[in-house]
Amino acid sequence: MTEAVRRPGKISIVIPIFNEEDNIEPLYAALVKVSSTLDRDVEVILVDDGSTDQSRKRLERLAASDPRFKVIAFARNCGQTAAMMAGIDAAEGDIIVPMDGDLQNDPADIPHLLAKMEEGFDVVSGWRRDRQDNALFRNFPSRLANLLISWLSGLSLHDYGCTLKAYRADLLRGFRLYGEMHRFIPIYAAWQGGRVTEMPVMHHPRRAGKSKYGLERVFKVVLDLLLVKFLTRYETKPIYVFGGAAVAFFALGFFAGIYALWLKFADGITFIQTPLPLLVSLCAITGTMCILMGLLAELMVRIYFESQSKRIYDVRYRLNFDVKSN
Predict the structure, then answer these.
(1) Tens digits of per-residue pLDDT, 193-214?
(2) How far apart are the C-alpha atoms of 65 and 120, rounded to whole Å?
(3) Which of 49, 145, 221, 305 has the greatest number of CB atoms lying within 10 Å of its CB?
(4) In this structure, are 118 and 224 located in the same domain?
(5) Both 230 and 243 in a single domain?
(6) What's the pLDDT tens digit per position in 154-193?
């Protein structure tokens, strides 16, 4: 599917929906109210992620009554990240504001996010400072995950899990989302040179429906973060990752071999009395395999870019290239 044409000054609000039938009408009322306070065109893209309740029918009625509200209906449940990606692909605005559809995010915060962007930021991330969720099973694991993500990524944010954010649309061009990666867009933006900040936003207790989040998401988030870090830092140079692993294995094997020789000649312990020779062989084989995998990955990267005429760099804008010199 081709991406929508971006319109300057337009705001696109993207909301994944999954079994939120009792929240749709109140959400609509809140969005209409906040839209009337904005001096820009607003579109709301509601992505039904394969709901099994009456959410889809209510969304259809809503879209029929208000053309500003657009609906994308999935054939099956594909997950929040897929729904977010579908909404971003279809968005026409030059600023994209994703948010949850359970009314825990407050649409009244959208003007504040936009005002913060006017200070020159590319991403404004919401921070649920007074989070209204279970302290033990939701808030505590979330704090640990945020600390870990901030440490691994180098971008310190208090609340990566808050869906309510504001992005400049051109920053998301060519960025694909998988797994739980929607929460890592600020990291991607920062690594691409974008200016990222955060600000406190309101957070309300869930009034209807059931939460779709569990503790298992913490592990998925960490794994997806490692994937994002690899793709953004080493997409064009995977040999650095595999080569680094190879060096570590070779070093381990070397020191294990030195220690085995020391034991033999200093203490009279033969090679067959220790597992060190086996460790040396295993490290040598594994290190060699890492080198070969790195070379294979390098070939695949070159095939990927050259076969699709892709560049390894992104240009944000150009100046004076349309001017012909004398």
Answers:
(1) 889 999 999 888 777 656 555 5
(2) 36
(3) 49
(4) yes
(5) no
(6) 888 888 888 899 999 888 876 677 666 777 888 888 877 8
